[in-house]
Write a structure and sequence with these properties.
Radius of gyration: 21 Å
CATH class of the largest domain: Alpha Beta
Order of helices and strands: EHEEEHEHEHHEHEEHEHEHEHEHEHHHHE
Helix content: 25-40%
Structural class: alpha/beta
Strand content: 15-25%
Shape: globular
CATH superfamily of the largest domain: Glycogen Phosphorylase B
Distance between the termini: 24 Å
CATH topology of the largest domain: Rossmann fold
Number of strands: 15
Strand order of the largest sheet: 2-1-5-6-7-8-15
Number of helices: 15
Largest sheet: 7 strands, mixed
Length: 361
């Protein structure tokens, strides 16, 4: 099966959506499938003001059709709700092609944080976007339940994995900083709530990896913290393995791939008891979730690194790829046209996957 993923999120952006798509494209090959990406790089695009790494593709349904005339695919998946995602959705509706979507970013909360536009309005727009497809993939059961309450339909579970080789306790080295070392990695933006971490009275050192619109203000307000900017995957793995606690102050993330990367590196997690952390580490012994984030940080110091690593090993990209393909096969199985490809995929994926991957029909 050849799958086209039409995504507004792509390099040079550094975020969980891009990393998920890159990893899944490799993992599906073991299942006999392939993914090709349609990104803003294929179109005339303009940078988003204040976010130069984000490109807005000047795409249309007609341009999508021209691309597919030259590149035949079996299925179209749309993971983002930007200009390219909207164009791909419009093309699918006009041509009668089946497509699936995935819900990666909690835009209602993000938009409200930045603009105070009511969450109900943003949710309505997103609901219209996603409900037009044959299924919407979500990362956790908690997110699925929340979206169902907001009127989203045909929700399917699609979890994530982690690279257990790159992110490993074996990468640990001496950072030459006062210990314990508390680490945050992610985008520096208002919705990430990084200030909650930086304002804590903690012993040792605070490391901040990542970039974004809030970086300059945070550096000025918290000069004692060490801001390292964006890091490569390789260097990031060293910082994970060499720190003592990973602090995740976000209250809005739908999953948080950095949680798995930290855990795979043997780094215990401190976070709020909110969706995302609750689903990824809530029932494990690898993290401390508490509304008192300082208490969570100090308690997380007591967690054995082996426990963190063991929990991360339960998440694999192979299983994530199986879920992804199972969802596509299930979505296409209802098509009135012949679906030999879908039938073959269903047979293959269900050999090792639980049969109830769909969270809510």
């Amino acid at each position: 099966m050849r799958i086209l993923v039409a995504t507004d999120a792509w390099r040079p952006q550094v975020n969980g959506v891009v990393r998920s798509l890159e990893y899944i494209s490799k993992a599906v090959e073991d299942w006999g499938a392939s993914i090709e990406f349609l990104t803003p790089q294929e179109f005339l695009s303009i940078p988003l003001p204040t976010y130069s790494e984000i490109k807005l593709a000047l795409a249309s349904a007609r341009s999508i059709a021209k691309y597919l005339d030259k590149n035949s695919v079996d299925h179209i998946h749309i993971p983002t709700e930007g200009p390219l995602g909207l164009a791909a959705r419009r093309y699918c509706l006009q041509s009668g092609r089946i497509f699936t979507t995935s819900y990666h970013t909690n835009f209602p909360d993000y938009v409200w944080t930045r603009t105070r536009i009511p969450k109900s309005l943003t949710s309505a727009l997103l609901r219209r976007f996603h409900n037009a497809g044959r299924g919407t993939m979500v990362s956790t059961p908690t997110l699925a339940a929340d979206l169902e309450r907001r009127g989203f339909k045909r929700l399917m579970q699609w979890s994530r994995g982690v690279d257990h080789v790159n992110f490993s306790p074996d990468k640990a080295t001496d950072l030459n900083l006062p210990r314990p070392v508390f680490l945050y990695a992610g985008r520096l933006a208002p919705e990430k709530n990084v200030e909650d971490f930086l304002a804590l009275n903690l012993p040792g050192s605070k490391l901040v990896i990542g970039d974004g619109p809030s970086r300059r203000a945070l550096e000025k307000a918290y000069p004692e913290a060490h801001f390292l900017g964006t890091q490569t995957s390789e260097s990031l793995s060293v910082y994970y393995a060499s720190s003592d606690v990973f602090v995740f102050p976000s209250r809005t993330d739908t999953f948080g791939m950095v949680l798995l990367e930290a855990l795979a590196s043997g780094l215990p997690v401190a976070a709020y008891p909110v969706p995302g952390p609750l689903d990824v580490v809530g029932t494990s012994s690898a993290a401390v979730l508490d509304e008192d984030l300082r208490s969570a940080c100090l308690e997380a110091l007591k967690i054995p690194r082996e426990a963190a690593r063991a929990h991360a090993l339960t998440y694999t990209w192979s299983r994530s790829a199986g879920q992804f393909l199972e969802n596509i096969a299930s979505a296409r199985a209802n098509d009135v046209r012949p679906q030999n490809v879908a039938s073959n995929l269903i047979t293959k994926t269900r050999k090792i996957l639980r049969p109830n991957q769909i969270v809510k029909p």
